[in-house]
Amino acid sequence: MFTKRARLWLGLIAAASLLSLASSCSKTPEEGGGSEPSGKAYTSKGDEGTISGKVSYAGTAPAPVKIQTDADPACSKASPNLTSEEWVVKDGKVANTFVYIKDGTLADGTKFGEIDGNTLPGAKKSAVVLDQNGCHYKPHVLGVMVNQDISITNSDPTNHNIHFMPKNSTDWNHSQLAGAGPMTYKVPKAEVLVQVKCDQHPWMKSYVGALKHPLFAVSGDDGSFTITGVPPGKYTVAAWHEGASGTPGTEQKMEVTVAAKGAATADFQFGASAALRGQPSSLPMLPALEVPMMGKP
Question: Are residues 100 and 170 in the same domain?
Answer without folding.
Answer: no
